[in-house]
Amino acid sequence: MKDYSGGVSDLFDSQLKEWDLARDNYRQLDNVKVRKVFFAEFEIAVQFNPGRITSSAAKVDAQSIEARPCFLCEKNRPAQQRGIRFEQGYTILINPFPIFRRHLTIVCDTHTDQRIAGNFLTMLGMAEALPEYVIFYNGPQCGASAPDHLHFQAGNKGFLLIEDDFRNKGLCRKVEVDQGTELWSWQKYGRGIMTLRGSDKGALAEAFGNFYARFALTQPERPEPMLNILASYSDNMWIIHVIPRKLHRPACYFAEGNDRILLSPASVDIGGVLITPREEDFIKITSADISAIFMQVCLNEKEIMLLTEDILL
Ligand SMILES: [Zn+2]
Prior knowledge:
Elements lengths: L4 H14 L1 H9 L4 E6 L4 E6 L4 H4 L5 H6 L15 E4 L3 E5 L8 E6 L11 H10 L3 E6 L12 E6 L5 H5 L5 E7 L2 E6 L7 E5 L2 H16 L10 E8 L2 E8 L6 H4 L12 H4 L2 E4 L2 H6 L2 H11 L3 H8 L5
Helix pairs in contact: 1-2
Bound molecules: zinc ion.
Zinc ion binds next to loops.
């Protein structure tokens, strides 16, 4: 796999020179407020990022999606936005509404539904081609603001807290190995995650496929079971965090008055960096709120255990 790091770095340089909106928004990141919320075994970062309001509050019901021009289709993209070709019919773009210092959207060249089935290996290829990034996928009903146009995102490594948490033996440990492919299990993390690690792409895809098939049985009415996925690559190994979901948005998203917290959790949030587009939420959110949000939208550790049993066989 070709390394795209250099090309992407050049793309950033030129886009930040030529595209005022992107330059301003990346500059704004310097002023973004972040605070830590402490739990017994881990921390969560909360980022106040007003630029993300469009994404967090996006209407993703079929009618609203139908009514708007797709912002990921080439013909509707801003004139200043340029991209670089990626293999298998994808284009790498700078995300003009960043959370990360380096934030990419990797867009399929055809307008086709957001689905992970059939595209998981492509995602692993992206992680390999962009070793300085974590690649993430938000399912069509749990975080993607363009559920009708297949895409991934990527953010620079060293930002999501889950990266370090994975190396914390008190939180995550290896529970099963089959021919070099590993299943890891999380404890005391407040949100259920299945983690796979290995160097054999095909074996990882098979393990993911086993999980997907099982999990899909629990959500038969959906076009795909609700999933967020984070994948990264280093030292010839992929690390893949699969986050099965049971709810798109927590109760506090729909509450009124002081009970409202406008937070629409997806890969980045569950990866340890909660995005609050409103300052009042940034100020008031507590560890109890965050625990409640995770409990509502994610599976618990026991449910993950049942779903992952013998997943590598
Ligand atoms: Zn489109």
